[in-house]
């Protein structure tokens, strides 16, 4: 997925290691609409503009990156990597680039995509 200048500018505010992890996560989400939300400091990935069409969000910070899942509370998580106690969303901390390529994370992303398809 080609990164637009707004997202590149947004990532300039973060350490290079964080930007690299964000780019790696983006590569897991080809063909999905990307929406930058600067006030919320996140990038949303969806198949439309409605909240219910969201698949996940990438949330960078100065210390790291989280991959948040809409309806993450409903996703299967046999590896136990989802965190959070919200009523709907859950997230996975991405401590390093190796975490991006883990089988557990790939399964969560696939499950989130399948859950979206089931919703619509």
TrEMBL record:
Check the record and name the Pfam families matching this protein. DUF1801
Q: Which InterPro entries match?
A: YdhG-like
* Residue ranges constituting the YdhG-like domain according to the UniProt record: 41-113
Name of this protein = YdhG-like domain-containing protein
Which species is this UniProt entry from?
Chitinophaga fulva
Starting at the broadest rank, the lineage of the source organism is: Bacteria, Pseudomonadati, Bacteroidota, Chitinophagia, Chitinophagales
């Amino acid at each position: 997925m080609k990164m637009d200048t707004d997202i590149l500018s947004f990532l300039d505010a973060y350490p290079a290691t964080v930007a690299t992890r964000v780019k790696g996560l983006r590569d897991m989400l080809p063909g999905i609409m990307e929406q930058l939300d600067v006030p919320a400091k996140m990038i949303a990935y969806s198949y439309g503009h409605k909240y219910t069409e969201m698949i996940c969000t990438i949330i960078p910070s100065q210390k790291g990156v989280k991959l948040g899942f809409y309806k993450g509370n409903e996703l299967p998580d046999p590896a136990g990597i989802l965190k959070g106690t919200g009523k709907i969303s859950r997230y996975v901390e991405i401590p390093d680039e190796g975490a991006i390529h883990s089988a557990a994370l790939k399964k969560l992303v696939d499950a989130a995509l399948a859950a979206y398809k089931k919703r619509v």
